[in-house]
Design brief:
This protein is of the alpha+beta class. Helix content is 33%, strand content 21%. It is built from eleven helices and 21 strands. The strands form three sheets. Strands 1, 2, 3, 4, 5, 6, 7, 8, 9, 10, 11 and 12 form a twelve-stranded mixed beta sheet that branches. The longest helix has 41 residues. The radius of gyration is 27 Å and the shape is globular. It starts with a strand and ends with a helix.
């Protein structure tokens, strides 16, 4: 299991051959220093940087980039090395942000050579720094560990190297930036997005326009702890302008200083990114993290105040004679007064954070594109034809009990890297108790239908295909909007034969796509192969599935996303226990959501229990039928 570290936390390393993966919102310089047990670097020959990227047991990138992979072999390091410090710095003169506070928080992960993530760290809280010691691998008592550092330097790379005792740090920093500038002059613009089978083969081979990023914000769901920048096909090959199109100055800066007694007004899209969609995506994730950490600080302050009061009372009233005396009463009153004062001060700060986030949400929500917007947003009432696949899709909202009215959109990256399971079983929430078992099942299918409709609407016409399996035909009323609009790949499959036919069709699709990947021959795919993304909606799983069908479904869950096949399963896990543990790997591979409000999701930063509410159509609204009618009309226009 991945360890998500915070500053100062360490974690043992189970192996010695590793990769350090870096994801940032803008190009950064990555390097590493080799130090002794005190972290002192003996000379420039023990620093790997773009001008000298290889050392024994260590290799770094030779130019600035938004994503890096550093190779480390701890057993091959020079004698006397006890600490490997991974450093990041913003390049000079390339037109990007000047400080880390003006860019998305970098994300650093330690993985095995097979890509298995061991530990990760998101470098939040940076402001005016332009260089940072991200993390260090260190050896103590014969065991190698990783520690999250996150120490920033406002004076840049020279100050960082000086702090590690490097002789001639200023000259070395200048040489590093010069090497980066030379590398930038030789860089090549990323390829445009391809929406064809050949493009999907490229993505599966790892040659897509942006590096893979963790998708989804929750645990057990995977979470994008640091969103990476995706390429814009229209982006120029020169320096990138991160400016909001209606803001000045040109680069996205920290919020401008407000005058006395004034608050800085929030702006929609005020985050790093090459397009407005990417800026809004990063801004929403920033709001999510801000709320998580603010709530953690508030809860920690309350816990501290209560524990402090308890310690003071224990100390003062340790003598039994004081417990019923006037002095004892005064001690109790004073201890409670101190507790109340601490809590009141913490609440004042927390309320200020909540008000700021609420103001930001009020300007962000109306500016969201359809893929990020709720069904009540006017953007859904006049849907246009999608021209390109968006970065992400909103599947619901998250909120904390401290202020239930402050909702954070839950966005999942597209194309989806894992399937979704809509839990049709009874949960512990009050909403589920009021609805009863039948009501929860009905809402679960409706949630799956609205999610499928959103996917159909945000993809370009003909680039997304939906298949439905309803073995017993139990969900016909809820599936009617999709069936009546004519947007399904075929009628809902029923019975064991229907299940087998759909699974065989999609399994063949995945097999052919994988063979094309291995052979590098996307042009040789059969002409009858639909190059679109595919979504398989299954109701009442595992009813109607025999052992062979279950095996095929697990194959689609594991291998399908890389070939453009995704799962959306409506099921009650408790009812599936009759199959034994054979289905447990399938459940663990899916993102579980509920059709009613339920606090089963946790954020990747501090692990709060967040209440999830699905993106439901407002009661009495016809927006779902309007959107599906627009999808059907657009598909007829392109002949799909």
């Amino acid at each position: 299991m991945t360890a998500e570290l915070v500053r100062g936390q360490n974690h043992p390393l189970p192996r010695t051959r590793l990769e350090i993966r870096v994801s940032a919102g803008s190009p950064v310089v990555a390097g590493a220093t080799l130090g002794d047990e005190h972290g002192v670097v003996q000379g420039v020959e023990r620093i790997a940087h773009p001008g000298s990227p290889r050392l024994p047991g260590l290799e770094v990138s030779s130019q600035a980039a938004a994503g890096h992979r550093l190779a480390v072999d701890l057993e091959a390091l020079p004698t006397g090395v006890r600490r490997v410090t991974v450093l990041l710095a913003l390049p000079v003169g390339l037109g990007g942000p000047a400080t880390f506070g003006a860019a998305a928080a970098p994300f650093v992960a330690v993985t095995g050579l097979d890509g298995t993530e061991i530990a990760s760290f998101t470098l939040t809280g940076l402001d005016a720094e332009s260089a940072v010691s991200a993390l260090e691998l260190y050896r103590r008592h014969g065991v190698w560990k990783v520690r999250a550092v996150g120490q920033g330097y406002a004076d840049g790379l020279a100050a960082l190297l000086t702090d590690q005792g490097v002789p001639g740090a200023a000259e070395l920093a200048a040489a590093v930036h010069e090497a980066v500038a030379r590398g930038a002059a030789r860089s090549v613009a990323p390829p445009p997005r391809a929406a064809t089978a050949a493009g999907r083969v490229q993505r599966a081979e790892g040659t897509a326009e942006h590096p893979s990023a963790p998708a989804g914000p929750t645990r057990p769901a995977t979470a994008p702890t640091a969103p990476t920048a995706s390429a814009d096909p229209a982006a120029p090959s020169g320096p990138i302008d991160y400016a909001h199109p209606r803001r000045r100055p040109a680069a996205v800066p920290p919020p401008p200083a407000a005058g006395p007694g004034q608050e800085t007004r929030p702006v929609a899209g005020d985050a790093a990114g090459r397009s407005m969609d990417e800026r809004l995506y990063n801004q929403i994730w920033g709001m999510f993290e801000d709320l998580a950490r603010s709530a953690a600080a508030w809860r920690s302050a309350v816990e501290f105040a209560e524990s402090r009061m308890g310690r003071e009372l224990d100390r003062v009233l340790s003598d039994p004679r004081d417990r019923i005396s006037a002095a004892g009463d005064r001690a109790r009153q004073e201890a409670r007064a101190k507790r109340d004062e601490l809590i009141a001060r913490a609440r004042e700060v927390f309320d200020r954070d909540l008000d700021r986030l609420a103001a930001e949400a009020a300007v962000v929500e109306p500016a969201l594109p359809a893929a990020y917007a709720g069904w009540a947003n006017p953007v859904w009432h006049a849907p246009g034809v999608a021209m390109d696949m968006p970065m992400a899709l909103r599947i619901g909202d998250l909120h904390l009990p401290e202020r239930t009215g402050l909702r954070i959109p839950l966005l999942v990256r597209l194309p989806m890297e894992r399937g979704v399971w809509v839990d049709s079983g009874r949960t512990d929430s009050e909403a589920a108790d009021l609805l009863g078992a039948d009501g929860v099942r009905r809402l679960a299918v409706e949630s799956a239908v609205t999610l499928a409709a959103r996917l159909l609407a945000v993809y370009p016409p003909g680039e997304f295909s939906v298949h439905v399996v309803d073995p017993a035909g139990a969900a016909a009323p809820q599936l009617a909007p999709l069936v009546d609009a004519g947007v399904l790949a075929g009628p809902p499959a029923a019975g064991a034969a229907g299940v087998a036919a759909v699974l065989a069709h999609l399994t063949r699709h995945v097999d052919l796509m994988q063979m094309a990947v291995r052979a590098g021959a996307a042009d040789s795919l059969p002409p009858d192969l639909d190059a679109a993304e595919h979504l398989l909606v299954i109701n009442d799983f595992p009813h109607g599935f025999d052992d062979r069908a279950v095996t095929q479904l697990r194959y689609l869950a594991d291998e399908g996303p890389s070939a453009g096949v995704h799962l959306l399963i409506v099921a009650d896990r408790a009812e599936a226990r009759a199959y034994g543990p054979v289905l447990d790997p399938l459940w663990r591979s899916l993102l579980r959501i509920t059709p009613v409000a339920d606090d089963h999701l946790a954020d990747p930063w501090v692990g709060h229990a967040w209440t999830f509410e699905p993106a439901a159509v407002p009661p009495g609204s016809r927006v779902l039928e309007q959107v599906l009618a627009a999808v059907a009309a657009a598909r007829r226009t392109v002949g799909r």
